[in-house]
Write a structure and sequence with these properties.
With 78 residues, this protein is mostly beta strands. It has a domain of 52 residues. The two termini are 24 Å apart. The structure holds zinc ion.
Length: 78
């Protein structure tokens, strides 16, 4: 789960790009942000151009074959 405390520094991204895409491991991410594994709920923080991991810590185990990453929080990365 991703968390925040100050609503003044985050914004609902109604037209933001990329939230619907499911990305497999070893994909170069197009946007800075937090990505969530759809299989187990684990999260990773990524910078644009980095490769999504094929293993990660999480409370529930998931296999590389099941792993699909989805952008959940985008950062403008300034
Ligand atoms: Zn996972």
């Amino acid at each position: 789960m991703a968390f925040y405390k100050d609503l003044n520094v985050v914004r609902y991204d109604v037209l933001g790009p990329g939230y619907e895409n499911l990305l497999p491991p070893d994909t170069s991410v197009p946007l800075d942000g937090i990505y969530r594994c759809e299989s187990c709920g684990g999260e990773v923080v990524m910078r644009r151009g980095e490769l999504l991991p094929d293993e990660h810590k999480s409370e529930r185990a998931c296999s590389t074959n099941d792993m699909k990453w989805r952008l959940i929080v985008r950062s403008e990365g300034h």
